[in-house]
């Protein structure tokens, strides 16, 4: 494949200041841990910063700080006052949006167009939305029998993945604070920098010390955190494998957990659909964020008579996608987040080809360094193929066909996951029937990958349990007894 030298846009470094080393954010201040690990730019493999590796003692300190804040100032604060902090954080995220967008793109590899237009504004929107709930919780219909106001759990451990680092943080921290909990959050090992910038925002907002604590580290830090006896509730987003390990670890304890896990969404196109619109939806569904999205439309189910036409229009559209420098605002597809993820994508695509699928990708030129994978379409995929059953978490679309709506439903539901699905048809009655039949937490109709803080998100089956967003998302952060800490 032809190669070119990658040079991030020069102004990017002046928009955000990246420190050479970062400490852990505990009790309102940054503290250096004993060990450090590098976080790199996946587009060129250069080290962006050295970040602290939190050990068990750091976990103790962070949980203790969160407990003190919960039993102290935060626990005594009214919802209206808590709401003001959330509003302040939301405004600061907006004010510092360019810094957050650049930092996220450098640390994650996703296009600046996406961090600028999706990750950062939607993260701010989550804080605005939950700020509004903080003083209205008694109207959320969540109070336990005999009580008037829903009560928080206490100290919440939150562990998040690398695909939407700031947005996942916002999905977790905003409802936890709105409902009166305090937080210890662990970002993913490969994308810690926007969480640490968020810690600065907490300081800037004068959030009382200990209300939000950020522990950087790897899976061991996450494990020590979720297993800590001082934690009352766990909110996890990540792989089904780690979700299972967490469920096992807390079995027999009183800890509550919400698990947002993997997906293998079907994007279903009927022969009466507006095909050009559907092709745009397919492209957005699987190539947004390089396909590293739990709800990505990674299985295209296309009705037999329009298969050839859809595939050929899709190929024409993919040839126009701009793949490369994530810092270029015209880029559509950036870098894959890590070498490990790139290897996983390559292994699964090779397995698909070995099992009989045909791979197609437009010609792409990639830099000599960094982690890259072209937008790829696999046709001739059978339901038993690994690429039809396993989550690839990359820019790879597996195409299958169906004849009847019943067959589409059977194929779409034939997965251990149940997170999302898309339906493309002009018939309103069919949309309603499909939405009823599909075993997916979110069903998009004639659109895909739409997110809004008011709308609950979450899965069935191995996609986890609990919902995030909307009134439903608050439910996970309040107890159903009247004995939770009163405020
Ligand atoms: P994981 O390997 O599961 O990692 C998620 C987080 O858990 C990371 O912070 C990770 O730390 C930490 N972790 C690892 N082992 C742990 C343990 N034993 N106990 C506690 N925490 C532990 O997933 P990933 O590779 O970051 O993300 C990709 C997966 O997440 C995909 O399967 C994707 O579908 C899923 N995902 C789901 C959703 C929703 S909303 N359902 C959203 C995004 C992603 P390290 O980073 O250091 O490993």
Automatic annotation (TrEMBL):
Record has Oxidoreductase as a keyword: yes
Limits of the Aldehyde dehydrogenase domain: 36-480
Entries under SUPFAM superfamilies matching the protein: ALDH-like
Membrane spanning residue stretches: none
Gene3D superfamilies reported in the protein's UniProt record: Aldehyde Dehydrogenase, Chain A, domain 1, Aldehyde Dehydrogenase, Chain A, domain 2
Location of the active site: 260
GO molecular function: oxidoreductase activity, acting on the aldehyde or oxo group of donors, NAD or NADP as acceptor
PROSITE patterns named in the record: ALDEHYDE_DEHYDR_CYS, ALDEHYDE_DEHYDR_GLU
Pfam families with a match to the protein in the record: Aldedh
Entry keyword set: Oxidoreductase
InterPro entries: Ald_DH/histidinol_DH, Ald_DH_C, Ald_DH_CS_CYS, Ald_DH_CS_GLU, Ald_DH_N, Aldehyde_DH_dom
PANTHER family given in the database record: ALDEHYDE DEHYDROGENASE-RELATED
The family this protein is said to belong to: Belongs to the aldehyde dehydrogenase family.
Name of protein: Betaine-aldehyde dehydrogenase
Organism: Intrasporangium chromatireducens Q5-1
């Amino acid at each position: 494949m032809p190669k070119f030298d990658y040079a991030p846009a020069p102004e990017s470094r002046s928009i955000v200041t990246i420190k050479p080393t970062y400490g852990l954010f505990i009790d309102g201040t940054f503290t250096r841990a004993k060990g450090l690990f590098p976080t790199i730019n996946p587009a060129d493999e250069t080290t962006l910063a050295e970040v602290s590796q939190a050990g068990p003692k750091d976990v103790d300190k962070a949980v203790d700080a969160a407990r003190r804040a919960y039993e102290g100032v935060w626990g005594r604060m009214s919802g209206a006052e808590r709401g003001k902090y959330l509003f302040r954080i939301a405004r600061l995220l907006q004010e510092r949006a360019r810094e957050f967008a650049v930092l996220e793109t450098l640390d994650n590899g996703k296009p600046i167009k996406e961090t600028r237009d999706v990750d950062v504004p939607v993260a701010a929107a989550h804080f605005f939305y939950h700020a509004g709930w903080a003083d209205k919780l008694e109207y959320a219909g969540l109070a336990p029998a005999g009580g008037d106001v829903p009560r928080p759990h206490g100290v919440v451990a939150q562990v998040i993945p690398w695909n939407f680092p700031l947005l996942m943080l916002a999905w977790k921290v905003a409802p936890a604070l709105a409902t009166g909990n305090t937080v210890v959050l662990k970002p993913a090992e490969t994308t810690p920098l926007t969480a640490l910038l968020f810690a600065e925002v907490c300081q800037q907002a004068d959030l009382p010390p200990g209300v939000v604590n950020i522990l950087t580290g790897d899976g061991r830090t996450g494990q020590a955190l979720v297993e800590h006896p001082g934690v009352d509730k766990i909110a996890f987003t990540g792989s089904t494998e780690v979700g299972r390990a967490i469920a096992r670890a807390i079995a027999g304890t009183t800890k509550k957990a919400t698990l947002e896990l993997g997906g293998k969404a079907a994007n279903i196109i009927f022969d009466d659909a507006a095909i050009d619109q559907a092709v745009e939806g397919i492209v957005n569904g699987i190539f947004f964020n390089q396909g590293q999205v739990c709800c990505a439309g990674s299985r295209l189910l296309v009705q037999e008579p329009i298969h050839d036409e859809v595939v050929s229009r899709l190929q024409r559209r993919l040839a126009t996608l701009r793949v490369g420098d994530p810092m270029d605002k015209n880029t559509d597809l950036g870098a894959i987040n890590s070498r490990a993820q790139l290897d996983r994508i390559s292994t699964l695509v090779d397995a698909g080809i070995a099992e009989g699928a045909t791979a197609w990708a437009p010609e792409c030129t990639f830099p000599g360094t960094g982690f890259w994978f072209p937008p790829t379409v696999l046709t001739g995929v059978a339901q038993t193929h690994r690429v039809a059953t396993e989550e690839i978490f990359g820019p790879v679309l597996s195409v299958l066909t169906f004849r009847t709506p019943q067959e589409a439903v059977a194929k779409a539901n034939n997965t251990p996951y149940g997170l999302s699905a898309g339906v493309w048809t002009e018939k309103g009655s069919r949309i309603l029937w499909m939405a009823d039949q599909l075993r997916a937490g979110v069903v998009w109709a004639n659109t895909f990958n739409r997110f809004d803080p008011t709308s609950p998100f979450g899965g069935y089956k191995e996609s986890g349990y609990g919902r995030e967003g909307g009134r439903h998302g608050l439910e996970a952060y309040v107890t159903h007894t009247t004995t939770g800490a009163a405020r």
